[in-house]
Amino acid sequence: MYIRWCRAMLSYSVTESELPEDVTWLQADGFEGGLIGVGQQFREHGVGYVGVYSIALCIGVLMDRDGMTLDESMEYMDFNVLGSYVGPDMPVFIWDLGLLEGRVEDAD
Fold it and tell me: What is the value of pTM for the model shown?
């Protein structure tokens, strides 16, 4: 059930009209379907913003878009996305706690 919901959410995206005009953030190319929000941070020179992405949704993007298996997409995320550093403005990737607690009832 949860995986089915994640796949349905792949079509969801934040529109710029929903955010203040001055909000910009570094985006994870190709993972627009995994964007779940924009985080705000206090920094040395004011407020900064970062894209917040669901790891589960990003894995779903890789499976749907690129035809990867679950194992392949998890390995790709771990090595190529989560294992890279692109500076202090890099996006934040989160694990959904429901997924970690094993609430996946129906993987179809």
Answer: 0.71
